[in-house]
Amino acid sequence: MRFFDVNDEWEDEIAAIETRESANPPKEGAILFAGSSSIRMWETLTEDFPSKDVINRGFGGSQMSDLVRHFDRIFLPSNPRQVVIFSGGNDLDAGVSPDQVAGNFAAVCEMLAAALPETKIALIGIAPNPDRWSQRNEQQRLIQLTSDDCVQNGHDFIDVWTPMIGEDNLPSRDLYLEDR
Predict the structure, then answer these.
(1) What is the pTM (predicted TM-score) of this model?
(2) How far apart are CA 38 and CA 86, in angstroms?
(3) Edge-to-edge strands of the sheet including 156-158?
(4) How far is CA 121 from CA 117, 164, 171, in A?
């Protein structure tokens, strides 16, 4: 089922991904990275995983609900053997509750299990962000909810919060691009 909305703010970016991949199709069974701008701007993804076939389907400042909405266009092409998701911070910044974001993550996982039952799922947890530090309680709640979901359902959870906190218990500022 394809949800197509010409007024969708991500239509141009998703169409650009589809155009790019139609010219150079990714290998079936690759590792698919999906999510927001942290994935989209991961320009060294192939160099960082030189012995793996990887696909970058990150788009803009997307939210977990956008991964649900565009599920068939993001996850189904190329039949990935593993999916790595980084999403949720933009949701919280837009006022979506941690419980709702975790519910959307669970929905993506359920959709993946139904459509691609052999595909492994990994979630990169929320990163501490200097510009969103006031949201740290909601971010940590989301981390708890999604890491619990991953444990309960056999998915991998990648904790980036802990190694990105400096000795002063604040986000390590040297790890961020200009947009933080």
Answers:
(1) 0.89
(2) 7
(3) 54-58, 31-35, 82-86, 120-124, 156-158
(4) 10, 22, 27
